[in-house]
Specification:
97 residues; alpha+beta; six-stranded antiparallel beta sheet; two-stranded antiparallel ribbon
Length: 97
């Protein structure tokens, strides 16, 4: 079992949810419910983990995770990052695509 990290789960029409997940690709896939794509998201060193082929015209369709980017790969979001993105996606009611 790998180390758990703090992530933010964003689902369509729902408020973002903080949770912990094993820092392993198969754990991300299990949480998303499909094979995943991973990409660096923002200058705050945030990584978005979403379903393969979930990006359509610059929008993400479906559930995705946000986690931090550390020197050795994925890392926990800091409390400030969690707050910033929870507020951002809560204001939008989650990702409505």
């Amino acid at each position: 079992m790998g180390k758990q990290i703090d992530v933010l789960v964003v689902e369509p029409g729902q408020a973002p949810c903080q949770t912990k997940v094993e820092n392993e690709l198969d754990a991300f896939e299990k949480m998303i419910g499909a094979p995943v794509d991973v990409g660096c998201c923002l200058p705050q060193r945030i990584v978005m983990v979403c379903r393969e082929n979930a990006e359509h015209g610059g929008c993400i369709a479906g559930k995705f995770l946000l986690c931090g980017l550390g020197e050795d790969g994925f890392a926990s979001l800091t409390p400030a990052q969690q707050f910033e993105f929870q507020k951002k996606y809560a204001a939008r009611g989650g990702d409505k695509t």
